[in-house]
């Protein structure tokens, strides 16, 4: 069934990869090589390198990126912790973003979990921690290199207003995809208003 799902996604040109937690388990079990090989056999086209739950060295992170690239995968990395009590200082993540991109990562995912609250760079209300938001952007250099996990409508609206309708968003529930697309194309009041104001100023 998993192979059928992967093949269906690939037929529509959709990159598909196992979640980063699986890679973390492989690293914990010292089976990174086997994990990457199995991902290829199953048919995944990309690999996510993350340390959202466990911690490992920068050397291990680089090796995981390099091994996945050498195996022909597109590599995405993720920064941020799933539990805020494990969070490092912002400077750590800024260096991580830059280093991951320098090592060949295609995109860097900004952690937000499925809840969008009390994780990654969101507070307990699901609001972005503003000064960290700005610093993450500076580290990436180009916001198009980032994928923002944004499961909550307010987060999606804020990101679309700030970066435009094509901003990279992740952790969107399948049943929310059409609602998000409506936000992207300005069919909801919150995202239509900026378009309308721009139209009036012409």
Describe this structure in words.
The chain is of the alpha/beta class and 202 residues long. The protein has a single domain (2-200), classed as Aldolase class I (TIM Barrel). The protein is built from nine helices and five strands. β3 (107-110), α6 and β4 (146-149) form a beta-alpha-beta unit.
Inertia-based shape: globular
N-to-C order of helices and strands: HHHEHEHEHEHEHH
CATH homologous superfamily (4th level) name: Aldolase class I
Biggest sheet strand order reads: 1-2-3-4-5
Tell me the β content.
5-15%
**Percent of residues in helices:** 40-55%
Largest sheet: 5 strands, parallel
The tally of beta strands, per DSSP, is 5
Average predicted confidence as pLDDT:
90
Q: What is the number of independent domains?
A: 1
Evaluate the radius of gyration. 18 Å
Distance from N terminus to C terminus (CA atoms, Å) equals 53 Å
Task: Summarize the helices and strands and which ones pair or pack.
Blueprint: H1 2-11, H2 20-28, H3 32-42, E1 46-49, H4 58-70, E2 74-79, H5 90-102, E3 107-110, H6 130-140, E4 146-149, H7 153-163, E5 169-170, H8 177-184, H9 189-200
Helix pairs in contact: 2-3, 5-6
How would you summarize this macromolecular structure in one to three sentences?
The chain has helices at residues 2-11, 20-28, 32-42, 58-70, 90-102, 130-140, 153-163, 177-184, 189-200; strands at residues 46-49, 74-79, 107-110, 146-149, 169-170. It is α/β, with parallel strands linked by helices.
């Amino acid at each position: 069934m998993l192979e059928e799902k992967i093949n269906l996604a690939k037929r529509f040109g959709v990159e598909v990869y196992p979640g980063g937690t699986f890679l973390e388990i492989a690293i914990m079990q010292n089976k990174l090589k086997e994990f990457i090989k199995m991902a290829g056999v199953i048919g995944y086209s990309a690999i996510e390198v993350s340390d959202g739950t466990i911690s490992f060295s920068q050397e291990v992170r680089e090796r995981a990126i390099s091994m996945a690239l050498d195996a022909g995968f597109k590599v995405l990395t993720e920064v941020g912790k799933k539990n805020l009590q494990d969070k490092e200082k912002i400077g750590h993540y800024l260096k991580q973003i830059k280093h991951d991109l320098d090592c060949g990562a295609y995109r860097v995912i900004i952690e937000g979990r499925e809840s969008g609250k009390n994780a990654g760079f969101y507070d307990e209300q699901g609001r972005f921690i503003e000064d960290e938001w700005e610093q993450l952007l500076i580290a990436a250099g180009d916001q198009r290199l980032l994928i923002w996990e944004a499961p909550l409508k307010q987060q999606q609206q804020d990101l679309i207003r700030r970066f435009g309708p094509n901003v990279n968003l992740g952790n969107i529930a399948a049943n929310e995809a059409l609602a998000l697309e409506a936000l992207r194309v300005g069919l909801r009041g919150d995202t239509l208003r900026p378009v309308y104001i721009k139209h009036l100023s012409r």
